[in-house]
Write a structure and sequence with these properties.
The protein contains eleven helices and eight strands. It is α/β, with parallel strands linked by helices and about 300 residues long. It has two domains: about 5-110 and about 185-300, Metal-dependent hydrolases (TIM Barrel); about 110-175, no CATH class. Strands 1, 2, 3, 4, 5, 6, 7 and 8 form an eight-stranded mixed beta sheet that branches. The longest helix has 16 residues, at about 110-125.
């Protein structure tokens, strides 16, 4: 049976990797009796204007947000954690705010990320490195000529066609997840919090325990274990995080209780959401917060 909730604060539309348009998602929220819905697409604000229009149409309160990918490269963890960044609706009318947010997000994807990955490969495998596997440095143009949305496949093609590396094992050693050159997508934590502080965003650590979800499904995806998140948590606390996503489909009761204790310990607000991407594997209306918890959230947002 679907959990009866007041606000579902974590959902995705076609603006990132969801199956539904903003209007379709908000129409579903109306059908489910949800009073407020957070639209938090990955690293983009593009679906929010249409979401707000749909919210007025269906009389659903829309909470504007972005799920920001935060990049980590540690000896014990190389990957991303996610930060739900919420802000007031009127900020969308501020062109400087919107442009500034897009500029921050652009650091974690696209050209800027490709250039950083090229630098890492040259540092570890270029002619001036200890390995000296590449006869010349890999150039950004080697990748850009193949695609404006470069993936690992394009790096492999460039290493083969531009630098003459045929051995698949060597290519994997250069671009694989275990490579010292591997750089995950996302923005560095300090860069994000510079923007959060200046613009008074409400920052919530998304699904902290989902990487340790014991069941099947998509909720844990490629997220790190709870032990790693707990090790990194002080960095988020020191940066000035405001909340924890306690209620989440990939959090079993044990995790939910632990997240609640963390929230109390660090004086953080508690949020929740379904992380909706589709109608079957990750549907809307599975998790969320009560009306009283939503009032606390709104006070913090204001």
């Amino acid at each position: 049976m679907v959990q009866k909730i007041f606000a579902d604060l974590h959902n995705h539309t076609r603006a990132s990797d969801g199956d539904f348009t903003p209007e379709q998602l908000i129409k579903q929220a109306k059908t489910l009796g949800i009073k407020a819905i957070g639209i938090t697409d990955h690293d983009t604000l593009k679906g929010l204007e249409n979401a707000l229009l749909a919210g007025k149409k269906y009389e659903i309160e829309v909470i504007c947000g972005v799920e920001v990918s935060i990049r980590f490269k540690r000896s014990y963890f190389t990957g991303t954690l996610h930060l739900l960044c919420y802000f007031r609706t009127d900020r969308l009318l501020d062109d400087l705010f919107v442009k500034g947010f897009h500029d921050v997000l652009a650091r974690g994807r696209g050209e800027q990320l490709v250039r950083l990955r090229v630098d890492e490969i040259n540092k570890n495998f270029g002619p001036k490195s200890n390995a000296q596997i590449l006869k010349r440095d890999l150039a950004y143009e080697d990748i850009a000529t193949l695609s404006q949305n470069a993936t690992r496949r394009h790096f492999a093609i460039a290493l083969k066609e531009s630098l003459g590396i045929i051995d698949k094992g060597i290519i994997n050693a250069i671009i694989g997840n275990d490579s010292p050159s591997y750089l995950p997508s996302g923005v560095e934590l300090d860069k994000v919090f510079d923007f959060i502080r200046k613009n008074q965003l409400l920052a919530v650590l998304a699904h902290p325990a989902a990487g340790s979800f014991p069941g099947k499904g998509h909720y844990k995806e490629v997220l790190p274990s709870l032990e790693i998140v707990e090790r990194i948590l002080p960095e988020f606390i020191n940066a000035g995080i405001h909340g924890l996503e306690v209620y989440y489909p990939g959090h079993i009761k044990e995790h939910q209780d632990l997240m609640t204790s963390w929230a109390k310990k660090y004086h953080l607000i508690m949020t929740g959401g379904s992380d909706c991407h589709d109608g079957i594997e990750r549907p809307l209306g599975v998790k969320g917060i009560s009306e009283s918890e939503f009032k606390v959230f709104k006070e913090a947002l204001a």
